[in-house]
Design brief:
With about 190 residues, the protein is an alpha+beta fold. Helices cover about 30% and strands about 30% of the residues. It contains 3 helices and 9 strands. The chain has helices at about 1-30, 140-150, 160-175; strands spanning about 45-50, 55-60, 65-70, 75-80, 90-95, 100-110, 115-120, 125-135, 180-190. The protein has a 4-stranded antiparallel beta sheet with strand order 1-5-8-7, with no helix packed on it. The protein has a 3-stranded antiparallel beta sheet with strand order 2-3-4, with no helix packed on it. Strands 6-9 form a two-stranded antiparallel ribbon. Strand 3 (about 65-70) and strand 4 (about 75-80) form a beta hairpin. The protein starts with a helix and ends with a strand.
Length: about 190
């Protein structure tokens, strides 16, 4: 009797193992075809300079400048020739070509002493605007020389002194000076 009970227990135990195995195989066959397909795109920011054709060349009586965005639009190249008394404000606009809205974050000046960049009130939410003032008068060495000309009293000097002063003025205007300035504008996500 005891042997029959033991055989019965073994048989039940083997049946339970067999049924669990069949259940596992069935679950694996059912779960084998389940898959998750995921597709997504990330956004990006791409602030670029925009210029109207009328703004790309600035010509005034005391100089001319050309403003050209770089090929990728992330840099504005300013070139030209100006006289020492040149003082112009240039409207600079930056638009975001990316898929995520951006806002202006920070302005840092890397180098330069003949320009100043001011932030304008944002009129359009997609376009940030700035005023770039270019003035060689900000060069201290040139300003001291220019002021020495203006303090000279022509009535009390001799003709030779006046001629010498005129020569210095001509040299002042004929010397070519190269100025460079660089600003770094930082933008951040503006959701």
């Amino acid at each position: 009797m005891r042997k029959i009970k033991l055989l019965r227990k073994k048989f039940i135990f083997i049946c339970i193992i067999f049924s669990m195995s069949i259940t596992g195989v069935g679950y694996a066959a059912w779960n084998d075809d389940a898959a998750i397909n995921l597709s997504y795109k990330t956004g990006f920011i791409d602030p670029v300079f925009i210029m109207d054709s009328s703004e790309s060349i600035i010509t005034v009586k005391n100089g001319a400048l050309s403003l050209t965005p770089s090929q990728n639009g992330n840099t504005l190249i300013v070139k030209g020739e100006v006289y020492p008394d040149f003082n112009e404000n240039i409207l600079v606009k930056i638009m975001d070509d990316g898929t995520i809205p951006t806002v202006f974050n920070e302005l840092s000046e890397k180098k330069g002493n003949v320009s100043e960049l001011n932030i304008n009130k944002n009129i359009n939410k997609n376009i940030e605007s700035f005023t770039l003032n270019i003035s060689p008068n900000n060069d201290e060495e040139l300003m001291q020389l220019y002021e020495s000309f203006s303090t000279f009293n022509e009535e009390s000097s001799s003709l030779e002194q006046q001629i010498e002063i005129l020569r210095e003025k001509i040299n002042y205007y004929s010397k070519e000076r190269k100025y460079e300035f660089e600003y770094k504008l930082s933008f951040e996500q503006g959701l």
